[in-house]
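QA checklist item 7 of 12: single-chain prediction sanity check.
[x] sequence parsed
[x] length recorded as 175
[x] structure emitted
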Amino acid sequence: MKINEITKELDKYLTEEERNSIDPRAMVEMATIVTDRKGQHLIKNISTNPDSTRNWYEEEYFKVYDNLSVSSAKKISRIKFRNPEYIIHTDSNWELNSKEKKDLIKFLSEPNKKVPYVKNNWEYAILMFNQEAYQDEENMEDLVITIKEQSEMDENNPRKYYLPIDLPMPDYTKL
């Protein structure tokens, strides 16, 4: 759903004062990367919901939930993309055990068929983070950038700070 569609939908339910106090971008700043609807994983949901107004460079992370429903999750873990570290947060700091860490790696390594230019859930997670963080909904292919392409970019190019699609997955067993 595009931001203007969300704004129209909000118009139906909110007063003018309420509507003016809400940034509609916040309503779309969450992307589910993968869910375990078949009950094959210890981890049930992997999502990303970065705030598009924040500078994320080198602090990018995704969330892992113990439930398919984000609102029903009892445990949440925030894990960095670039290295095997947790992000400490106030509402939940689930530290994965060794089985859950292996399951996370397996889940992220599985093939992803949602988008033709990504190979697995790890690359899809990168793509979704970039889309949500940088609010580029028009052309997702512009969000696909390699480490080599980034290294050749000018410092003023905002794409220089996207997560590169070929970023190696860290060894999350070391969380």
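[x] summary fact logged: Strands lie at 31-35, 45-48, 61-65, 76-80.
[ ] second reviewer sign-off
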